[in-house]
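Dear Dr. H.,

I hope your travels went smoothly. While you were away I took the liberty of generating a structure for the chain from your last submission, since the lab meeting agenda had it listed for discussion. I wanted you to have the full record in hand beforehand rather than looking at slides cold. The sequence, exactly as received, is reproduced here:
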Amino acid sequence: MPAHTMRAIRIHEHGGPEVLRDEEVPVPEPGPGEVLVRVHAVGVNPPDWYLRDGMSNLPPETRPAFDLPVIPGTDLSGVVEAVAADVDSLSVGDEVFGLLRFPGFGGNAYAEYVAAPASDLARKPAGIGHVHAAGAPMAGLTAWQFLIERGHDHPSPFQAAPHRPVPLDASTTVLVNGAAGGVGHFALQLAKWKGARVVAVASGAHESFLRALGADEFVDYTRSRPEEVVRDVDVVLDTVGGPHSSRLLRTLKRGGSQFPVFFGEFDDEETARLGVTVTGTQVRSNGAQLAELGRLLDAGTVRVAIDSTFALTDARAAHERAARGHIQGKIVLTAV
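The corresponding predicted structure, in token form, is as follows:
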């Protein structure tokens, strides 16, 4: 059994990376339906810095409630140390990875131990290490739930209509905006797995990386505007969002769909005139889907690119790296 205390990163006040504090706190005890995981690696994701700065970039009505101090983090890979009496799907010693309690902020993954819902976990693919496994859950499940299968009936806080992925095959063209990032590089690979043609949009420094992942066409947004050089796309997966995301609607053929991962600004009259739809969802924890993704990771069909790694105690530096942007793949914290 673990010691009674552990290292964890906690936030006591909102602000920049400097508010991330390395502290000694009690080891959590797994409740019903949970297991205690000894954390080996933690994936760093945008919601981590949204939480850190008070979610100032989200509309007030979409901000989940939470109390300070809080341990950030949702993505982990590690080893099961203890199991609640009602859990029979996992055993002590199992290597697991997962996206915990999302879209809430109770993941508490920036720590040496985490009490995790067993239903949010899947067995770690044997063919990859903990660092790569920790980089997969949120980004991989986001791409999966947008492109392959939503897997839940929860409404999105950003739209009334339910999101419906478009069937992908060899007759489909998918444009991925922000293709080099966490969600983007998974989306590219999943679309290729389904046989689609993929147009990757990123800065020129990422071209060789994205072509190696299977991109059929590359657009360097620092040299060309994708809406001026790409036409007749079936699906746009936009991981960037923001006030200018509607410009990508012009790359779509009539009947096409744009999927904003982060909310953008769209005009209903414009989408009607173009004959296209805009639809999205909010990624949610799903151990069963993660197990499916894990099989692709184990087979090498999909891989996790690692931008950089930092020790758990150096989480501040990891957030500073994220703030500089132009990330290729995932940033990961190592706890062991």
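Two observations you may find useful: The chain has two domains: 5-136+304-334, 142-278. The radius of gyration is 20 Å.

With kind regards,
E. W.
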